[in-house]
Design a protein that fits this description.
The complex is a heterodimer of chains A (326) and B (351). By secondary structure, chain A is an alpha/beta fold. In chain A, 31% of the residues lie in helices and 26% in strands. In chain A, the strands form three sheets. Chain A has a six-stranded mixed β-sheet, sandwiched between helices. Chain A is globular. The two termini of chain A are 18 Å apart. Chain B is an alpha/beta fold and 351 residues long. Helix content of chain B is 64%, strand content 6%. In chain B, helix 9 packs antiparallel against helix 12 and helix 9 runs parallel beside helix 13. Chain B is elongated. Chain B starts with a helix and ends with a helix. Classes of the chains: A alpha/beta (326), B alpha/beta (351). Chains A and B meet through strand 6 of A and helix 7 of B.
Chain lengths: 326, 351
């Protein structure tokens, strides 16, 4: 394994990184929401911050945006110490949450004007930004529509526009695609790529593992600790040495039960409509993994089973990593 | 936002009336003489008493009380005319239905007054028959006077108090709810990420409602004076200063509620409890503060309404100014300061 969770520990914070964090810790009573994380986010990247619900993603973002104060650790955002001077980076960062943070009783235009006012944009810059946002969000001609009447996809794009009205260098996105349909999610990621191509650093949290492949770099957080960090390719290469079979079968529930007990299968779980079986170390050396497993499953009564060997997905990596945690 | 206070004013001012009229009255005339009949006529002539009829005895009157058909029973015992004629003290029994304390209290006052007036008239009549110069008996004429509101019009008492109740409801309710809603829709968090300072946010929250409250106040004052004919006798500056401190106090109370309330519903109910009830019950608006239980009197100090009702009535009706109202102004100013500091602390905490 090439990733060393302690590699950054004790090193000085890096002022050239978009975000540089050392030993960042936030406790609520006895509960450690974020437990001493060390990470550097290079500028100009799409950085995915992945983890299940309640793993500390939002708490980390709130510390980095200066909304809450940590108990321990250091945090530089765009070179500014956000713990001691949370206000210094605020004009240069943007933030968008799953809630979209729009005033529902205001129109599209009024929302944009409000946020432009909050960031004190001069009129000519607002005019330019407004045009860009309306175009980007596909809201031209709907400027006077009440925000409450927009469908989720449009609201989401408007929220992105409002969050970037001041042209931030770094944009935090906390579960920005939650509750949005797959097509709108796809479109939204296109918008994020567009922002990234203009040099904006994106710090995105999500629990959709398929979105992880959209990122230049990933960090996995689990129970407040980082358990992996690197590019998607690195992570796939470094963290999974096991081979994986994708199993399609008519009765996935029964098959899952069988696979969990089966010899040579280290782990099995649902992945989309099919099952993923992680092959245990004992059987790893076999050449013909798929026929070997399908044969045994047919004997066990799963007549319609089909299996094919697949490259591990980010989800596979994550399940694998979590299963290794104490 | 402007229509609501006017509607509330009209509704409350017309619906709530402490003027008591046409109280069901039953007479038990055991004397049955011309003198007793003319006495009964005195009741009949009054607006307050509505003489529904006669009952045969006190037991019958008791049944009428039980069935809520009578509130007042006047018993004229046998011998009434004879006692009057002899120049003795004639005694009349007046029974009041105490289950409606307000009516009973006023009924008592009215019947005492009526009897005194009637009695003095009788005395005049008796004196004349005796050839006594009545002008020298000036003390016989009872002087019943109500200060500040000689016509006893309840709108004069009501509107200066209603001003306080309405402003309190509008301000507390609005601030309490808008902030919780902002937390719900995520805009509050968005603001905390923005470069806006805590103080700027608070000011932005307070300013529109302060303005609105002042416009409401002016409207209520104007409507009260024109439509209801309420006098404005005192120092308008004191009223304005008191109003400012009162509005800030109420807004602060709303902010505190919204900082604590977990949801819009809870904020709504809490705001109602903290605004409507104290403004209505514990401010002296509906009930005189020294006649409510001592514990409630203590509680009343915790809400800004009681100070403002005193200021409002003082300025409108009593023609009061700084000299009389400085303790209330000071109390309200202090209240506003403390409650806004608490609100700021609750908002400023970085969790």
């Amino acid at each position: 394994m090439s990733w060393d969770p302690e590699a950054l520990r004790g090193t000085p914070v890096n002022p050239d990184a978009a975000i540089s964090v050392r030993g960042l810790t936030k406790r609520f009573g006895d509960f450690s929401a974020v437990d001493g994380i060390d990470v550097d986010v290079p500028r100009g990247q799409v950085f995915g911050f992945l983890g299940p619900n309640g793993s500390g993603k939002t708490t980390t973002i709130r510390m980095l945006t200066g909304t809450i104060a940590p108990q321990a650790g250091q945090a530089l955002v765009l070179g500014e110490d956000v713990i001691r001077h949370p206000e210094r980076a605020k004009r240069r960062i943007g933030y968008m949450s799953q809630k979209f943070a729009l005033f529902e009783d205001l129109t599209v235009d009024e929302n944009l004007r409000f946020y432009a006012g909050v960031y004190d944009l001069p009129p000519e810059r607002f005019a330019a930004q407004r045009r860009y946002v309306l175009e980007m969000a596909d809201l031209i001609g709907r400027e006077n529509e009440l925000t409450a009447n927009l469908s989720v996809g449009w609201r989401q794009r408007l929220a992105l526009g409002a969050a970037t009205i001041h042209d931030p260098e770094l944009l935090f996105l906390d579960e920005p695609t939650g509750g949005v349909d797959p097509v709108a999610r796809r479109q939204f990621w296109d918008l994020l790529y567009d922002l990234a191509s203009r040099g904006v650093t994106l710090f995105v949290t999500t629990h959709y593992m398929d979105e992880a492949t959209h990122c230049n770099r990933l960090a996995f957080i689990y129970r407040g600790r980082l358990i992996a960090e690197g590019s998607p390719q690195q992570i796939r290469r470094d963290f999974i040495s096991q081979r994986i079979l994708e199993v399609s079968v008519g009765d996935p529930d029964a098959a899952l039960q069988w696979l969990e007990q089966a010899e040579g299968v280290a782990e099995a779980y649902l992945s989309g409509a099919s099952l993923h079986a992680v092959i245990g170390s004992g059987a790893q050396g076999r050449d013909e993994l798929a026929p070997w497993l399908t044969g045994r499953m047919r004997e066990a009564g799963f007549a319609d089973v089909r299996a094919v060997e697949v490259d591990p997905t980010i989800e596979d990596v994550f399940v694998n990593l979590v299963s290794r945690q104490p | 936002m402007l229509l609501l206070p006017i509607m509330q004013l009209m509704l409350f001012a017309y619906a709530i009336s402490f003027d008591v009229k046409n109280v069901a009255t039953v007479i038990v005339d055991q004397d049955k003489t011309p003198a007793s009949r003319s006495y009964v006529q005195a009741y009949d002539a009054s607006d307050f008493f509505a003489v529904l009829g006669q009952a045969d005895d006190v037991a019958a009157a008791d049944r009428l009380f039980d069935r809520n058909q009578a509130r007042i029973v006047v018993v004229i015992p046998a011998g009434f005319a004879r006692q009057l004629a002899a120049g003795e003290r004639a005694e009349v029994a007046v029974f009041l239905d105490g289950s409606e304390p307000n009516t009973a209290r006023i009924g008592q006052a009215y019947s005492i007054a009526l009897n005194r007036v009637y009695g003095s008239r009788l005395t005049f009549a008796w004196a004349e028959t005796q050839g006594v110069d009545v002008t020298g008996l000036g003390q016989l004429e009872p002087r019943v006077r109500t200060w500040y509101n000689p016509e006893k019009r309840s709108s004069d008492f009501l509107i200066p108090g209603l001003l306080v109740v309405i402003i309190m409801i509008v301000t507390v309710q609005q601030t309490a709810v808008t902030l919780v809603r902002e937390r719900d829709q995520g805009t509050q968090e968005q603001m905390s990420v923005s470069p806006l300072r805590q103080s700027e946010l608070m000011l932005g929250k307070l300013l529109p409602w302060t303005l609105l409250a002042f416009v409401d106040m002016v409207v209520i004052t104007v409507v009260g004076m024109t439509v209801f004919g309420v006098p404005l006798r005192g120092d308008v500056l004191v009223l304005a200063l008191g109003a400012m401190a009162f509005v800030f106090s109420s807004l602060g109370l709303g902010l505190v509620i919204s900082a604590i309330a977990p949801s819009v519903d809870v904020a709504n109910i809490t705001a109602l409890l903290a605004s409507f009830l104290p403004a209505f019950m514990l401010s002296g608006f509906a009930f005189a503060l020294d006649s409510i239980p001592i514990v409630l009197q203590w509680i009343s100090y915790l809400f800004p309404a009681r100070y403002m009702v005193t200021i409002s009535r003082g300025v409108f009706l009593k023609g009061a100014g700084f000299a009389e109202l400085w303790p209330e102004l000071l109390a309200l100013g202090g209240y506003a300061l403390v409650v806004l500091l608490i609100a700021a602390a609750l908002y400023g905490r970085r969790r």
